[in-house]
Amino acid sequence: MSGSAAYLGAVKARRTIYALKKESPIPDDKIQEIIKEVVLATPSSFNNQTNRYVLLVKEEHDKLWEIVKSVIKAVVPAEAWESSEKRLNGFKAGYGTILFFASRKAITRTQEAYAIYADRFPPWAEQSLAIAQATLWTALETEGLGANLQHYNPLINEKVAETWGIDKDWELNAQLVFGTPAAGPGEKTALPLEETLKSFGV
């Protein structure tokens, strides 16, 4: 199997898994090692390294989702809470969560250094985070973990920062929930390639 075939096989195997167990087929230090590799390898504009990460497992993961539940319960209509709680308990049922942040200071620093591109650095930072999220998600999948990506920011930003002593400079971007899959992914459809891909000169 060629290098690209092996890589694309992992990319295609990465799917959104909602049904997760509070288990991991690999030890916590292996999860940390995977994250460290992604931190060091993920590209960023002008190498400004705007991405920040926090790993929560076991009781700390549970704590996060109890925070999310308390925040969401305070803002959703009472009649919608039951379905919301069920969904949030599904995330809590996982083994861990990786929190992704962007450093505002790092973005501002490069905006000042390269003023001509100042308006582009925030979206470029988002792109760097997206690369890291997809890479980590795929890497965890190759180790037998399932995952899904959530976005309860900015509602939970303040409580997350308070609970884990996160620098206020770090702006929460997403939450990657993971654990041993309890069920497979749902059916996935795709638009015809004729509608989404154009090639010229080939």
From TrEMBL:
It comes from the Eukaryota. GO terms for cellular component: cytoplasm; nucleus. Keywords: Cytoplasm, Nucleus, Oxidoreductase. It is found in: Cytoplasm; Nucleus. Residues 11-179 form the Nitroreductase domain. GO terms for biological process: cellular response to oxidative stress. InterPro entries: Frm2/Hbn1, Nitroreductase, Nitroreductase-like. GO terms for molecular function: oxidoreductase activity. PANTHER family: FATTY ACID REPRESSION MUTANT PROTEIN 2-RELATED. Belongs to the nitroreductase family. This is Nitroreductase domain-containing protein. It comes from Diplocarpon coronariae. The lineage of its organism: Eukaryota, Fungi, Dikarya, Ascomycota, Pezizomycotina.
